[in-house]
User: What shape does this take?
Amino acid sequence: MPIVAGYFYFVHEAGEASRPPVILIHGAGGIHLSWPPQVRRISDQHIFAPDLPGHGKSEGIGRQTIEGYSDDVAAFMDAIQLKKAVMVGHSMGSAIALTLALKHPKRVAGLGLIGGGTKLRVAPVILEGLGNPNAFLPTVQMINENSFGPQTPPRIIELAGKRMAETRQSVLYGDFLACNAFDVSGRLGKITVPTFVMCGTEDRMTPLKNSGALRDEIAHAQLEVVDGAGHMVMLEQPDAAADLISRFMEKFPRRARQKPAPVSPPPQAEN
Assistant: This one.
């Protein structure tokens, strides 16, 4: 997979005629693999899934503000020469997507907000644990155990916990500090792009009422509820998540992808 300007990313190419490209923005302590293949490879969609700075194989040290991460996504778009995209974000990624829509509205064609909210307050015990080297791994385990619904296969929970534990302590702590400070309540009336909100009925990290607040504050936003899923809805029920994203993308018309102008052959020298 390619690296550009220090950003490591996955890309799935669409056909000749495609809808606006999609950027998948992972959550706190995540990487591009937080999005399962069913979502990263949705048919006939042009999809990018970057690792945020300091995460996975991307360079950098991570941020402690959502606004900082939103600037990173805009810089990633510049690096791949992408003017506009549909932002689909999970948890912290949904906060980044919302901030992009408020700060860089011309870069955002639509929004998909999964497991998000107008605020993302973090329990003090989590912040204290992530900031303490001796309590870091037990706190990661606690976060992971509370991020899945009761029907999730144990292997999926185990892999997710392992990936989060591989995140540098300073980066994961910064992610949760950024989430805790995030608050766009009362500002979302400025967003007019097509928006869908997705949440699992068993989400204990960002309960369904948080997604309901997003639906209520963003004009014409639609709320999709996934029965039995927890906070990591796209890992728990990847087919359902991919289907909901795919159906949302049908709102956007297909357009032929631009091709470079043909190069004229050099003139023949006269004898």
Remarks:
- The chain has one domain: 3-251.
- The CA atoms of residues 74 and 100 lie 8 Å apart.
